[in-house]
Amino acid sequence: xxxxxxxxxxxxxxxxxxxxxxxxxxxxxxRLAVTEMQYGATGFGFTDPVVPEDSYLLSLELHGxxxxxxxxxGRSVSNRPVxxxxxxxxDLARNPIAFMEDxxxxxxxxxxxxxxxxxxxxxxxxxxxxSYRPGLQAQDPVIEQLGRALLAPLHAPAQNQALFVDHxxxxxxxxxxxxxxxxxxxxxxxxxxxxxxQERCAKELMRAHVREGIALADLAQACGxxxxxxxxxxxxxxxxxxxxxxxxxxxxxxxxLMRESDGPLSEIARQSGFADQSxxxxxxxxxxxxxxGLWRKSLPRKRPLTx
Length: 307
Description:
This protein is α+β, with helices and mostly antiparallel strands and 307 residues long. The chain is built from twelve helices and nine strands. The strands form two sheets. A five-stranded antiparallel beta sheet has the order 1-2-9-4-7, sandwiched between helices. It has a four-stranded antiparallel beta sheet with strand order 3-8-5-6, with no helix packed on it. The radius of gyration is 22 Å and the shape is globular.
């Protein structure tokens, strides 16, 4: 059974029940996660202690605080305002406890040291910890944009978004290793492509699961690669990320369905694997330069869509 400071376990630290949580499938034995923590009243007080472990929590603040007092290893290390859009780093091996009086709203990213060490090894970076000052917020627009990209999936969790969630959380891991490493780069790894067999296998799997989606870990395992190595190799071979390629396949399915039937766009979106009609319209328009409704207006009259 997996254990870590995310989901209900992290929620208990903030005395919150069933906080929205997304997990990455792209890691063995580690796992990346993001949990949304929100408390709307004043006078929260101290967070409860967390079980010490060899991992980090990153808190992307979606709501500013007048002040937050941070304690590490039983000692107060910071007492200052929290700026909206900033990121706080917490080492879970140092028993972090926070004191807050204001309402708060944050995304808490769970990042095991093992996940960071794996990528350091792949990139040829010497072992080491993240470099930051405890209690001092980082103003990092990359972390903020990655976090905000996960707000919609957090409130509409669905299996067909697994590949997107994996991509975002792995992108965060890459950013942390490159931007916050406290050690020098040892070598530049070669940019490897997928073999013809690996590329064919990955594409066949995504086509077979175009509607419900497929986890990045399953694609990487089928190709005998780690998740991050698979993403880099797929992009090098195909020119787009696995998630982008899957979106293209869903667009092709939607176009076929619109040619064959007069079914409502909401049903076309569902059968094509999109989260909803809004998601379908946004992706289709971005790729085709026109909305699905306008695209099929020039098509011949079609039969009703059969579910």
